[in-house]
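Section 5: illustrative case.
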């Protein structure tokens, strides 16, 4: 038997060279530093938008979003103004994990986002972010769930480090969370050997969202910077343990789905659309509703979470379920409660500057006819492109694009009708406040009032992630430029000497001289697309669990 794994993929959600680079140079991250020195590395272009579900799905499928159909954490439920979480069930392209199985290689995936429900891989799949939790339904084979929990007490998908103690974040909680994840990884490496092993950490992303401050003074003042650096150091320490278990000839890849960058300006796209006359509010908006909406929301995740847990423990589960459903229904209705659909032509949603037209025949109260669509799209584009940052006078958006301009493929129903591309990664357009009083530029204090969970985030996503590869054909110390996330697995297949299936968007990213000596083999098989289901309107407990996690992390 050959030593296993042959390939180790470290999926480091949100890792960025902006942070890793200086800390590697300063000797703070010795294991990542060694991988970089001994292999190739470079910035990795994410998808547009650079959002976790979209980007990791392009990674797994080597397809652009137009072919895989996943764009954001949420998607509109057909025929409604309601958003529901997406998961792997809506993916419209086959993954290369299944293809690796077909080629005789066993595959193990730990925590990789947007794989739920788990495919029956030859190997294992422990689902991540889009799964309700690590339970037998989110793990293939199901018995591995029990084994993992028995071997690694405390294993969970929850972002435990966000549970404050006495109003403050506790680094020890974060440290324990890193260690639990590393223990699970070591358990899988020892007990479930596979040819291709992928281990995911969400922590660099999650910690950066809450601790990567734009203001260097805030970053340099002790506990805040400590959390960001400490998270990196603890993950690096874990990497050291993991790498010590793999054979020296193992190919090691380090990949992130996007980078992170501190937010410098929160822009409320709903206001921009209202100012342009594209979004209209109801005349009889009762005064004070906005205030009430802001103040009745939960103040912070810490004490509330404790209360939630305490309530969950004492209430009969049927009552608890009803309470959660009622809260969700209120939030869903609240989102667009002030909007007059009979006069609104466009509205905003999602974790990026995403605009949806109120299309007749698609939206329940749609008014934009098919023959008006082009004109409304142009108006939306103009509204976005004219926006200026009042502090600097600079344009907030460099481009505003339609799915036809961004993607190729038939599955654009979940995409924005117009997507604003920010001029820089400090522009945050995830705070949608469709109420007449909400301003265009939202200050941090106002954001905190309107959406505490979201406003505690201080950093957003950047379109450049990381790519690191060591071993096999990857030349020591070389820098890779221009690679995209959909090209990582085709590169891996080529490095393993495997033919590529037909019809992939991603190409191997080797230098032309290497490719002329080692031409890419085209397989005859093209991957048939899976049956996919749309997001479901009916409530269920799984969906609540995912939504609660997304909300804790400021994605809703
Ligand atoms: Zn991510």
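Designed sequence:
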């Amino acid at each position: 038997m050959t030593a296993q794994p042959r390939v180790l993929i470290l999926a480091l959600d949100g890792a960025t060279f902006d942070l890793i680079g200086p800390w590697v140079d300063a000797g703070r991250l010795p294991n990542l530093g060694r991988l970089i020195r001994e292999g190739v590395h470079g910035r990795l272009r994410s998808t547009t938008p650079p959002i976790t579900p979209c980007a990791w799905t392009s990674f797994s499928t080597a397809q652009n979003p137009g072919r895989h159909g996943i764009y954001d954490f949420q998607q509109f439920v057909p025929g409604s103004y309601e958003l529901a979480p997406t998961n792997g069930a809506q993916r419209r392209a086959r993954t290369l994990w299944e293809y690796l199985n077909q080629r005789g290689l066993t595959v193990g995936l730990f925590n990789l986002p947007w794989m739920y429900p788990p495919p029956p891989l030859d190997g294992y799949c422990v689902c991540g972010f889009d799964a309700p939790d690590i339970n037998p339904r989110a793990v293939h084979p199901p018995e591995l769930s029990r084994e993992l929990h028995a071997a690694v007490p405390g294993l969970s998908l929850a972002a435990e480090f966000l549970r404050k103690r006495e109003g403050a974040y506790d680094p020890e909680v974060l440290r324990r969370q890193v260690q639990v994840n590393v223990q699970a990884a070591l358990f899988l490496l020892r007990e479930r050997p596979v040819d291709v092993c992928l281990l995911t950490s969400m922590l660099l992303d999650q910690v950066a969202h809450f601790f990567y401050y734009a203001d260097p003074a805030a970053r340099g003042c002790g506990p805040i910077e400590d959390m960001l650096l400490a998270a990196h150091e603890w993950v690096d320490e874990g990497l050291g343990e993991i790498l010590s278990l793999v054979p020296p000839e193992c190919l090691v890849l380090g990949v992130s789905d996007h980078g992170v960058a501190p937010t410098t300006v929160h822009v409320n796209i709903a206001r921009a659309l209202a100012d342009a006359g594209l979004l209209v509010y109801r005349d009889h908006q009762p005064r004070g509703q906005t205030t009430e909406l802001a103040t009745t929301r939960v103040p912070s995740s810490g004490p509330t979470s404790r209360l939630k847990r305490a309530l969950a423990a004492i209430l009969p589960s049927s009552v608890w379920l009803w309470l959660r459903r009622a809260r969700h229904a209120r939030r869903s209705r609240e989102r667009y409660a002030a909007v007059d659909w009979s006069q609104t032509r466009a509205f905003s949603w999602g974790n990026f500057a995403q605009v949806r037209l109120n299309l007749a025949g698609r939206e329940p109260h749609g008014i934009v006819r098919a023959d008006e669509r082009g004109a409304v799209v142009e108006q939306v584009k103009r509204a976005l492109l004219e926006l200026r940052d009042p502090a600097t006078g600079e344009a907030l958006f460099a481009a505003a694009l339609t799915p036809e301009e961004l993607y190729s493929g038939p599955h654009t129903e979940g995409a924005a009708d117009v997507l604003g591309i920010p001029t820089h990664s400090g522009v945050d357009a995830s705070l949608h406040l469709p109420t007449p009083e909400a301003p265009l530029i939202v200050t941090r204090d106002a954001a905190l009032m309107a959406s505490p969970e979201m406003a505690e985030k201080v950093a957003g996503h950047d379109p450049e992630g990381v790519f690191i590869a060591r071993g096999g054909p990857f030349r020591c110390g070389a820098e890779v430029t221009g690679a995209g996330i959909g090209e990582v697995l085709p590169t891996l297949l080529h490095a393993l000497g495997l033919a590529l299936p037909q019809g992939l968007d991603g190409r191997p990213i080797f230098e032309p001289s290497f490719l002329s000596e080692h031409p890419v083999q085209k397989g005859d098989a093209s991957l048939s697309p899976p049956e996919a289901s749309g997001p479901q309107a009916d409530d269920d407990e799984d969906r609540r669990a995912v939504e609660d996690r997304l909300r804790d992390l400021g994605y809703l």
